[in-house]
Design a protein that fits this description.
Layout: H1 3-40, H2 44-60, H3 62-72, H4 75-92, H5 96-99, H6 101-133, H7 135-164, H8 170-179, H9 181-197, H10 218-232, H11 237-246, H12 255-280, H13 282-292, H14 295-301, H15 305-323, H16 325-333, H17 339-365, H18 369-381, H19 384-393
Helix pairs in contact: 1-4, 1-6, 1-7, 1-8, 1-9, 1-11, 1-12, 2-6, 2-17, 3-6, 3-17, 4-6, 4-9, 6-7, 6-16, 6-17, 7-8, 7-12, 7-16, 10-17, 10-18, 10-19, 12-13, 12-15, 13-15, 13-19, 14-15, 14-18, 17-18
Length: about 400
């Protein structure tokens, strides 16, 4: 392995540590937001709406921030600002019992706004190094380290909720959010270290060609439509956690453990499908989508903890694909001088349909669980023809 590739791996590991701490913060919070909002008086439709709205804002604004990052090349500045907003909002959720569920919902949305600011820039920074080591492996490494944090966060909160009492009242949840402030600070500190050591990450991909100025090709747009269908049918975990709690499928303190299981599966799936992507290209995305499309029947119709676990495992496989190989595909299809914009458009489309799908599934939850399940499965399967069309038109960018 040459020195440049070693440096690229080192850089990706440091960024992965940032993601580990930030995901420990965010995913820990995400694992208990559903029951927390339920305790504060919110309905299932509200949980679905707020989860979807947060994701929509977190993705839609990336259209703007991605374009800004490409125009200004201030990738580090946008990343740091976004992480600061992204990670400060979580500990503030501890104040929600005094201000109500509307206040909590506002903070959930604010946290997603922070992710909108930093994500295209951070993804672009990571793509420079990932392109050097293999896009699939590079983003899979990032996702695997993300999910170490995503596993630890819910498990840590399980311990807190168990110590505070199995019923998990509002005060126990508030303590959880205060504790999550510690990894938030560690994430910010590691990010600043990465900035000081690697101020010019674009140099990892110095030998790759720039774009031709003609815009994004047809493969990218077919891919985007497929991603939109996939996002629409993919339920957010807070709605699933709401269901587990409402139907008493498990003790409230075990809900974070379920999320930790999903994140562990996510990490393993990311590594497996990341390597598969570097060998097989779009086939990896097609296979992952087929496997994860059937999580909803197990989660919402199973009526047992065992079937719920099976559904969460399938859901985790889908998350692993979404957070690794979907980004790897953008890196492969798009030259680096257009990549911030491409990530922004990609994430905006994903977020718009995630929002619409999450909101609709929240409404369907209160009316018909079979209808919710049918929508989820059919929407995800509708993505497959567009992924096949992308595969036929895809023209990977080769090294010069």
């Amino acid at each position: 392995m040459d020195d440049k590739k070693k440096q690229a791996y080192t850089f990706l590991v440091i960024l992965g540590i940032v993601s580990l701490f930030s995901d420990l913060t965010y995913e820990g919070a995400r694992s208990i937001v559903g029951p927390y909002l339920l305790l504060l008086g919110a309905s299932a439709a509200t949980v679905g709406f707020v989860s979807g709205l947060g994701e929509f804002i977190g993705y839609a604004l990336r259209l703007v921030t991605g374009y800004i990052s490409d125009r200004t090349k201030r990738y580090w500045l946008l990343t740091i600002i976004g992480y600061a907003i992204n990670l400060v909002a979580i500990p503030a959720l501890a104040l929600a019992p005094g201000y109500g569920w509307i206040f909590a919902c506002g903070l959930i949305v604010l946290e997603r706004f922070g992710k909108a600011v930093r994500n295209p820039a951070k993804s672009t920074i990571a793509s420079f190094a990932a392109a050097e080591v293999g896009a699939g492996k590079g983003f899979a490494l990032q996702e695997a380290m993300d999910q170490i944090g995503a596993c630890l966060g819910p498990l840590m909160l399980f311990v807190v909720l168990t110590v505070k009492g199995g019923d998990g009242g509002p005060s126990a949840y508030a303590l959880c959010f205060v504790i999550l402030g510690i990894p938030a600070l560690l994430a910010l500190g590691t990010l600043l270290l990465a900035r000081s050591r690697y101020p010019r990450p674009h140099e990892f991909e110095k030998d790759r060609p720039e774009g031709d100025g003609k815009g994004l090709d047809k493969a990218y747009w077919f891919y985007l439509v497929g991603i939109a269908f996939l996002a629409a049918g993919f339920a957010d975990f807070p709605l699933m956690a709401f269901h587990f709690t409402k139907k008493s499928l498990m003790a409230p303190s075990l809900v974070p453990v379920m999320y930790s299981v999903a994140m562990g599966v996510d990490a393993a799936a990311a590594l497996f499908f990341g390597r598969m992507y570097d060998r097989k290209g779009m086939k990896a995305i097609i296979v992952a989508s087929c496997v994860s499309a059937f999580f909803a029947p197990f989660v919402f119709l199973g009526n047992s903890a065992g079937l719920a676990v099976a559904g969460v495992v399938l859901w985790g496989i889908g998350m692993g694909a979404q957070e690794s190989i979907l980004k790897a595909a953008v890196t492969t299809m798009v030259p680096k001088n257009k990549r911030g914009t491409a990530f922004g458009i990609f994430n905006t489309g994903f977020g718009l349909f995630w929002f619409a799908g999450s909101w609709l599934m929240g409404i369907l939850y209160d009316r018909s669980l079979p209808a919710l399940v049918a929508f989820s499965v059919l929407a995800q399967l509708a993505a497959l023809p567009f992924f096949f069309a992308t595969k036929r038109r895809m023209k990977p960018i080769a090294k010069a």
